[in-house]
C-alpha cells in the first residue's frame, strides 16, 4: 500500500504541474458545459415526452406531433422526476400532471387530446402543476458523467503514453513497484482528478440555479464511474503496442466521443431517432448519468439494474485492465 500511495502522489504532482493537464481537467469541462447550457438550454426546440396511462392510442397519436413524444407508462413519480408530462386517462377525464416550466405547452397538449377524441365527445381536463427540473439541471449533471468518462479514458491512455515516451516506465520497472500497484496508482489519480474537475462544474451550476444534493453516495458513485472508465482505459492501453502508443490515444478518442454524444448526457433518450434509442439508453455513460441524476438531482434511489450494470462493468474492466496494463513484460 505504501508503494501505491507514493506512486499516486508522484503522478498527481507531476500532472497537476502541467498547464495542458490543468486545461483539460478544469477549463475544457467548463467550456463544454457552457456551450450546451447556453447554446441549447434556451434555444433548443422543445420536444417533451408525455407518459400516458390508460390509452395507448393517445400515446401513439402524440408521436405524430411536432412538440411531443408519447409513451405508455403508469409511474407518475418517475415521469415527473424526469421532467415528463404525465397524462392519466379515465373514461372522458384526462388529468395532466406537468413540471411547472412546461405550463406553456399544456394548451397545445389539450388541443391535441381534443383532436384525438373523435365523435364530438366531451373531454374533461384536470391539470396538476408539480415542481420540475430545468435543462440546466439536466445538462450539468450529465456533464459530471462526461468528466468521469473523459478523465478515465484520456487520463490513463494519455498519462501512460507520456510515461512510456519519457522513459519513466523503465525507471519504475527497475523499482520494487508491482504492475497491479502501478495500475491502482493510476486509477486513484484519475478519481482525484475527477473530483477536482467536478468542483468548477458545480460552481458554474450555481450560476444557473443548479443546487445538487452532494452526499457520500454522490461522491461514491462518481468515484465508481471513474473507476469503471479508468479500467476501460487500462484495457485499451494494455492492448496497444508500446512502440505505437498513439494507437491507445486514437482508440480512446474513437470510444469517448460516440459515448459522449450518443448518450443522455445532454439530451433525453426521446430526442434521438428510434433506431438509436436502445444504444443511447443502455450504453455505460447513460447508465452512469442515470445514477448521478438519481442521487444528486432527483433525490431517489438508483434502480437495481443500473447498480448491477455498473458493478459488473467496473469489475470486468478493472480485472482485464490490471492483467493487460503491465509494468514489465515478465509480470
TrEMBL record:
One of its GO terms (cellular component) is membrane. PROSITE patterns: ABC_TM2. One of its GO terms (molecular function) is ABC-type transporter activity. Keywords: Membrane, Transmembrane, Transmembrane helix. The keyword Metal-binding does not apply. InterPro entries: ABC-2_transporter (IPR052902), ABC2_TM (IPR013525), ABC2_TM_bact-type (IPR047817). Residues 98-328 form the ABC transmembrane type-2 domain. The keyword Transmembrane helix applies. It is found in: Membrane. The chain crosses the membrane at residues 21-44, 138-161, 182-208, 214-239, 246-267, 307-325. It is a multi-pass membrane protein. It holds the Pfam family ABC2_membrane_3. This is ABC-2 type transporter. The lineage of its organism: Archaea, Thermoproteota, Thermoprotei, Sulfolobales, Sulfolobaceae.
Amino acid at each position: 500500500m505504501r508503494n501505491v500511495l507514493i506512486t499516486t502522489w508522484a503522478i498527481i504532482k507531476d500532472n497537476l504541474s502541467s498547464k495542458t493537464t490543468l486545461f483539460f481537467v478544469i477549463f475544457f469541462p467548463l467550456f463544454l458545459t457552457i456551450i450546451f447550457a447556453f447554446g441549447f438550454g434556451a434555444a433548443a426546440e422543445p420536444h417533451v415526452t408525455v407518459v400516458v396511462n390508460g390509452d395507448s392510442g393517445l400515446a401513439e397519436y402524440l408521436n405524430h406531433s411536432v412538440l411531443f413524444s408519447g409513451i405508455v407508462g403508469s409511474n407518475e413519480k418517475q415521469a415527473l422526476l424526469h421532467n415528463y408530462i404525465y397524462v392519466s386517462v379515465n373514461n372522458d377525464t384526462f388529468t395532466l400532471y406537468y413540471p411547472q416550466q412546461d405550463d406553456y405547452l399544456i394548451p397545445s397538449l389539450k388541443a391535441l387530446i381534443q383532436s384525438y377524441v373523435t365523435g364530438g365527445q366531451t373531454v374533461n381536463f384536470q391539470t396538476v402543476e408539480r415542481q420540475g427540473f430545468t435543462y440546466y439541471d439536466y445538462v450539468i449533471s450529465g456533464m459530471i458523467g462526461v468528466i468521469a468518462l473523459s478523465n478515465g479514458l484520456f487520463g490513463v491512455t494519455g498519462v501512460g503514453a507520456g510515461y512510456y515516451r519519457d522513459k519513466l516506465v523503465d525507471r519504475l520497472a527497475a523499482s520494487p513497484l508491482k504492475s497491479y500497484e502501478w495500475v491502482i496508482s493510476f486509477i486513484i489519480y484519475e478519481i482525484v482528478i475527477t473530483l477536482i474537475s467536478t468542483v468548477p462544474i458545480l460552481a458554474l451550476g450555481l450560476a444557473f440555479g443548479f443546487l445538487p444534493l452532494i452526499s457520500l453516495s454522490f461522491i461514491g458513485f462518481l468515484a465508481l464511474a471513474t473507476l469503471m472508465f479508468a479500467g476501460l482505459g487500462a484495457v485499451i492501453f494494455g492492448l496497444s503496442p508500446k512502440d505505437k502508443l498513439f494507437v491507445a490515444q486514437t482508440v480512446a478518442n474513437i470510444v469517448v466521443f460516440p459515448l459522449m454524444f450518443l448518450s443522455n448526457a445532454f439530451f433525453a433518450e426521446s430526442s434521438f431517432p428510434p433506431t438509436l434509442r436502445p444504444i443511447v439508453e443502455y450504453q455505460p455513460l447513460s447508465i452512469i448519468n442515470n445514477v448521478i441524476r438519481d442521487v444528486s438531482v432527483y433525490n431517489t434511489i438508483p434502480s437495481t439494474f443500473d447498480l448491477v450494470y455498473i458493478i459488473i462493468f467496473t469489475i470486468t474492466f478493472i480485472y482485464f485492465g490490471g492483467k493487460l496494463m503491465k509494468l514489465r513484460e515478465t509480470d
